[in-house]
Amino acid sequence: MKRSEAEFRVDWEPIGKRVRIPDGETLLAAAQAAGVELVALCGGAGLCGSCRVRRMEGELSPLTPAEEAALTPEEIEAGYRLACQARPLSDVKIDVPPESLTTPQRLQVEGQEAEVPLDPMVEPVDLEIVPPDLHDLRADDLRVEAALAEEGVSPVSISPPVLASISDDLRTHRWSVRLAHRQGEVVAVLPTGTPLLGLAVDIGTTKLAAYLVDLGTGRTLAKTGAMNPQIAYGEDVIARIGYANDHPDGRQVLQSRLVATLNQMVADLCAEAGAEPEQIVEAVVVGNTVMHHLFAGLPVRQLGTAPYVPAVARPLNLRARDLGLRLAPGAYVYLPPNVAGYVGADHVSMLLACDVHKTRKTTIALDIGTNTEVTLAYNGRLISSSCASGPAFEGAHLKDGMRAAPGAIERVWIVGEKVHIQTIGNAPPVGICGSGILDAVAQMVEAGVLDRRGQIRPGHPRVRAGDRNRAFVLAPASISGHGRDVVVTRKDVNEIQLAKGAIRAGIEVLLAEAGIPAEAVEEVIVAGAFGTYLDIESAVRVGMFPPLPLDRFRQVGNAAGAGARQMLVSAARRREAEEIARRVEYVELTVHPAFRRCFVDALSF
Amino acid sequence: MKRSEAEFRVDWEPIGKRVRIPDGETLLAAAQAAGVELVALCGGAGLCGSCRVRRMEGELSPLTPAEEAALTPEEIEAGYRLACQARPLSDVKIDVPPESLTTPQRLQVEGQEAEVPLDPMVEPVDLEIVPPDLHDLRADDLRVEAALAEEGVSPVSISPPVLASISDDLRTHRWSVRLAHRQGEVVAVLPTGTPLLGLAVDIGTTKLAAYLVDLGTGRTLAKTGAMNPQIAYGEDVIARIGYANDHPDGRQVLQSRLVATLNQMVADLCAEAGAEPEQIVEAVVVGNTVMHHLFAGLPVRQLGTAPYVPAVARPLNLRARDLGLRLAPGAYVYLPPNVAGYVGADHVSMLLACDVHKTRKTTIALDIGTNTEVTLAYNGRLISSSCASGPAFEGAHLKDGMRAAPGAIERVWIVGEKVHIQTIGNAPPVGICGSGILDAVAQMVEAGVLDRRGQIRPGHPRVRAGDRNRAFVLAPASISGHGRDVVVTRKDVNEIQLAKGAIRAGIEVLLAEAGIPAEAVEEVIVAGAFGTYLDIESAVRVGMFPPLPLDRFRQVGNAAGAGARQMLVSAARRREAEEIARRVEYVELTVHPAFRRCFVDALSF
Fold this sequence. Notes:
The structure is a homodimer.
Chain A: E1 7-13, E2 17-22, H1 27-34, E3 52-57, H2 65-70, H3 73-77, E4 80-82, E5 92-95, E6 122-128, H4 140-150, E7 157-158, H5 160-163, H6 166-172, E8 176-182, E9 185-191, E10 197-203, E11 207-214, E12 220-227, H7 237-246, H8 250-273, E13 280-287, H9 289-296, E14 316-319, H10 320-323, E15 332-335, H11 345-353, E16 363-367, E17 371-378, E18 381-388, E19 408-415, E20 418-423, E21 431-432, H12 434-446, E22 463-464, E23 471-475, E24 486-489, H13 490-514, E25 523-527, H14 529-533, H15 536-542, E26 553-557, H16 559-569, H17 571-583, E27 585-586, H18 595-603
Parallel strand pairs in A: 1-5, 7-9, 10-13, 13-15, 16-25, 18-27, 19-21, 25-26
Antiparallel strand pairs in A: 1-2, 3-4, 3-5, 6-8, 8-9, 10-11, 11-12, 14-15, 16-17, 17-18, 19-20, 22-23, 23-24
Helix pairs in contact in A: 7-8, 11-16, 11-17, 12-15, 13-18, 16-17
């Protein structure tokens, strides 16, 4: 493309999109041109501060008064700007914090990408193999074995699915091949020089994230997200277990639907990267224990009844082919270990990605979902538990709740009698998602609309009449997408109380186990989809988290997916994950003497 | 059953049938009552000597003059009798040599049953496992692992198909289980005390034989035979390869049809033994290289074109589940090594069963079929080759050829102008099977009906007129089952010449390789279905075998199946089989300088 004098290039990170804009345009315009969906609550007037981005490289126009008002000195120091105000004065590279993005990046494909030394399980060997003739009648497997031995790879075995096509493959590639071997086991036969790829997958109960990684460079070539198709068979893990138990072939149905979607994601990733699924010689899959078991074809009935134990805690190396996953014929899927029925391999992966097992700081690491896993790292110990935080943060069980999808209210500000809202995709409001209800409740507490016990007080103009079914109107029918009020009810508030109470109780029990006060916690790592989008201030205000300085909190996005990527390129990281699972002391909250008191204490505001 | 004074029990070995007969009845009557189909050419008149059996235990009536005439002194010495003459005087145990049996035992289920020390790959451990509760939340796999470690089994892995039902299994059996483990890998979870069983299978191109073996005792509990269902897709291995190449999913079709039949055989075996397929924790499968590859899902295209190399020569341990074989969930199928494209694992198994690798005698071991594998053991060497003997001995490519089925002429005696025949099942003759055509040709040579070059001479009353299409009538239309003559044509004789010439040439080339004359051969072991039923004298007479004393020949029945049973109960025997495959020096006849001359020499009579 010819570069005009009046154009600048804007690189959007970590999204990877790039756009050229004419001199004088704002970053917000650049984002819109690039299809980067920045939150822009006030429509670009510089008032709401929601379009915060961070300058990484290049020059921007000077700070405007609107920016000086909206940003803290620390933020300004760190390079934060408002996209609606700042204009590039050169080519620039701009970092978009997850909280500044609306829906399209909502699928859990971001997450911190820590560098780990490359040490993949599967390695390439390029070979020239001597073809057979009537005076050299060795079988094809012996030929391959001998050629590998010459390269120092021995002992050798060849994966049965590779054997199924080895003779045709060797002849098609004219005996000049790249073999992918996994500690001596040949898992793929490819043309010489073909890059070997890996697949990392995070199976969430609701969402799937998949990454295609070059095992030779460690680079993530493509990433994609999708809804977990099992949702059609039950919204949460308990409903899925029920489906598996109550339907003939229920487990098989859930497994094969999931794998069909993963195969489609693999096809999409490969199309984007210009690669073939046969190049994917290894995969790492993480998920909570139920997702792990359903993916791996393991029994889940015992996960649905007390004492809720996993069938399998040990790490697994399963053939992708056996699971129905179409990768290289002999590719394995590595599943890191589970800790307990409700502390799964995804939490282990998250702890790994955040190096919680190595930290010297007293750290709390959480993965918030229907079940929230919490780990306390203190004085060399890793103490973990799981709290039944319920589906309220996924929008379920709320009168106007919905998932994080266009039209969902995700941010709420109550300023006096005014209620400002931000919806995903800037669509007309039709419901409330997790971060929205958390904000709403926090703001209602702050504005005095809620009392300590969670009752809605009359008085605010947005409180809808009725003694027993009083509700707070976030968006009146006049502006909503469906012509009805979008409201927060007493019952909704109660759901949030139960959810945040469970999480806080989990944290408090772990602190009690360690015998330390909350103030001793030096870092709180918040991972996962909801954890990425929630407003920490709101979470502290409602009492979900202990009242620590905000700078002790770190929102890390899909850390489970990041850990999976690390384990994909590093055998050493797998060993660390296995070490984490061995080290974790699991605390079962339901039988812990301190739980009941902590939970009741944590219910009020 | 109440025993009458006037009854004796007759045990038929190795068939395993048992019957009671009144005092005074002959063994032939006892055989008919038991359903043991003895050859009885002369209808029980004591003339033909075809109903030869051998007394193992008990007392029989004194020799009759007919027996003294029909049996040699050596045979009498060895306990041979004519079933139509001998009458039990007590309970007796009678051995039926294969050559005295007609069709029903024709499926390859017999074969020598050498005793080998028990040393199975899979062993049982009975465990009482501690069930989980809210204070012991270990996953099921860790629980099993810990219990096994207490029994000294470690390190442990659990086969993925076992994991798929482990939680339900442990709870169904109330945590009291018998685990079957294969060198530390758990392959089955059964109720405490359940006997562990094994399956041995010989996959012939035409016939299948399967044995159910108790791994704890080494005893064969049941055996069964069936036709190879792949016959519908091609009679011989070349036709099967063609089908696999030319049809989409051809290989899969052949594989799944075969496995479906094997699953039915397993069900039959288990029904007979009062067992369940889930008790079968290990299998050994032998077959020629093409059958091996088609069963194991390996490529066969390269086996159909020069230089005809196997995809896989190494021994394989494949999961039965992956092959579609329904045994215990984690059961493995062991496939011993192949030697070459046309010297397969079945030949290795036969060499093992007959201890050809250990013999100090100069020995030739043959497995006669469409391809005939020949091995010469001489001075510590094992030299093998394969001859394209063609399907004539399976009744194919002959004018009136047929498989060994009821109505097939299987024995022929020409006495002057008379032609005596024996058919399978004593049915009216409808065709000629392998042993019948061999007998016919030998007898025609002996009677001067054939000249050295294989031309049919006029003169004998059974020679049908016509110069160019002269034929020898074995059974005239008047007695045949279909109202037409059953004949041997010049072309049929030619097929036999090619077949026996190929086998003899194979033998001669190996002797030339070793640099020894035929007379140096101390033992000739003839295995396989046809090898069991052929008449050695006839085979020597037509020149298929060198003219050695008849007592140097040993017909061993389905030795490949016997070897499979040995490898099923003994890991040491597997190592020996692998050693055999490594030791064998394979000689490719088509490029051997001596082959052409040997073959031409071997064509004439």
